Amino acid sequence: MLDPRVSIIDKRLSNIDRIIVVSSGKGGVGKSLIASTLALLFERKGFKTGLFDLDFTSPTTHVVLGANNLRPIEDRGVVPPEIHGIKYMSLVFYLGEHVSPLRGTDLSNAFLELLAITRWGKLDFLIIDMPPGISDLMLDVLKYIKKANFLVVTSPSKMAFETVRKLIGLLKDLKIPIIGVIENMKIGGSTYIKRQIEALGEKFLGEIHFDIKVEDALGNVDKLLETRFARELDGITLRMQEEKRF
Amino acid sequence: MHEWSLAEAVVSAVSQIAEKEGLKEVRKVQLRLGELQQVDKKILKFALSQMKSGKLGKTKFTIRTIKAEFMCRKCNHKWFLREVDIADEIRESIHFIPEVAYAYFRCPKCGSPDFEILKGRGLWIAEIKGVK
């Protein structure tokens, strides 16, 4: 028995110039916020941008974007709806308020199904928001998304970094491109994370300070883009562009 | 319609296999269609007939529907899709992503959300017959 979905994935992603996978070994470090804000920043710079929320059991990018009552358009598959100029895909469109308790095989099946039916069209950037950890969906992204470039997020915590170190080790072993590492929710002046990243031979992209105003800006993208968090992320993206990291 | 994207995936997969196996022509393709996704068989057949070309120009597609069956991981109760009352909106969501069933279905016996889809999920290519 052969699964026909696998054969169509490359075609579905063929008109996307760059795929940036925002990931971390640990949850709660700000992946979804960074992925969503990155998509907004790219769109504001004039890039055709997509955002794909792969955190199937706990999706939250819709909270950041204030995306309510959206539904993909059915047209020989599904065309992602646009919000704030971003083509946006999330399992939340089909779940509503319901919880989705999925085991590994089911996560992989939902991933394959969405990749096979979603017609992204022409994009300069597709940003993928990963679930935390190094399990089924990470392995599926590595297997099926050949153009994946990883943007790794950590917090200043040694606990978060312990998992990030392992993620970076895996990506390096598999020769998967790593754009670099962002230290998010920075408090204090420690250079621990920077030194550790550089010791691993990877690019430390910069730090984003803990910004108490972000919480109030969730769901209001104009307000979000005015926060120190968004300005610091924008500074990092500008440097990445200058250095041709994407 | 979702059926068109499924048909596109089937034609793409069969074309790739025909190329790999050195087939000059693909005569028959047997598909297994899971009931859970509630794909419209007529539309799928029509989409396949519209999309096939080249080595698949004369291919006959046969589609057999597989009943969707579930088993509770907690109490081992087994049940079929026809026993579940599904609202239209939920039906449509499952049509696109069958795993969405885990958000809406519960074991009819013990109420657990931890169950397994034993049969009848998705579309599979069961057999390809061609001429070398």
Q: Can you offer a commentary on this structure?
A:
The complex is a heterodimer of chains A (about 250) and B (about 130). Chain A has one domain (about 5-240): P-loop containing nucleotide triphosphate hydrolases (Rossmann fold), CATH 3.40.50. The longest helix of chain A has 16 residues, at about 160-175. By secondary structure, chain A is of the alpha/beta class. Chain A has an eight-stranded mixed sheet, with helices on both faces. A two-stranded antiparallel ribbon of chain A has the order 3-4. Chain A has helices at about 10, 30-45, 60-65, 90-95, 105-115, 135-145, 160-175, 190-200, 215, 220-225, 230-240, and strands at about 15-25, 50-55, 75, 80, 80-85, 85-90, 125-130, 150-155, 180-185, 205-210. Chain A starts with 8 loop residues before the first helix and ends with a helix. Chain A is globular. Chain B has about 130 residues and is α+β, with helices and mostly antiparallel strands. In chain B, about 35% of the residues lie in helices and about 30% in strands. The longest helix of chain B has 19 residues, at about 1-20. Chains A and B meet through helix 5 of A and helix 1, helix 4 and strand 6 of B.
- Number of beta-strand segments of chain B: 6
Q: What is the count of helical runs of chain B?
A: 4
Global morphology of chain B: elongated
**Rg of chain B from C-alpha positions?**
17 Å
Per CATH, the architecture of chain A is: 3-Layer(aba) Sandwich
Q: Supply the number of structural domains of chain B.
A: 1
- Which CATH architecture of chain B would you pick? 2-Layer Sandwich
What number is the mean pLDDT of chain A? 96
> Radius of gyration of chain A in whole Å, from Cα?
17 Å
Helix content of chain B: 25-40%
| CATH hierarchy, class of chain A | Alpha Beta
In which order are the strands of the major sheet of chain B placed? Answer: 2-1-6
**Structural class based on helices, strands and sheet pairing of chain B:** alpha+beta
- Overall structural class of chain A, as computed from helix and strand content, comes to alpha/beta
